[in-house]
Please model this.
Amino acid sequence: MKVNIKKLNENATVPTYGSEYSAGADLYACIDSDVTILPGETKLIKTGLAIEVPEGYGAFIYARSGLASKRGLAPANKVGVVDSDYRGEVMVALHNHSSIAQTVSVGERIAQMVIAPFLKADFTVVDELSSTERGAGGFGSTGTK
Model:
């Protein structure tokens, strides 16, 4: 699938896939200097890119597993969503979940982006919903395993 990318900064890095079978393309920090994120703090990290997501698709921004598990840095909103009509800069709100300050380096891989289709719902208000065996059972209601 062809996805148009516009470099908003000449130092921006086009997303790359780590392997032939990677679902997510790495996004890179396009910053003028290293950025330190204190414990519990969130900072917006620019990518220097704008993207033209095809209609019917979204660009979903997820944590990089190594960055999250080893350094505690992950998107503050858990999953970022870039809609097909957005043309501004793609940025990642990185949150430091660790107990020590973490530094994001210029050009570092900061997140991964997955281009995926989505279904648009037609929400309809009804008086009753269909019944199921689970019913209204919530968190933990389907068993302990």
User: Anything to note?
Assistant: Helices lie at 65-71. The radius of gyration is 19 Å. The mean pLDDT is 96.
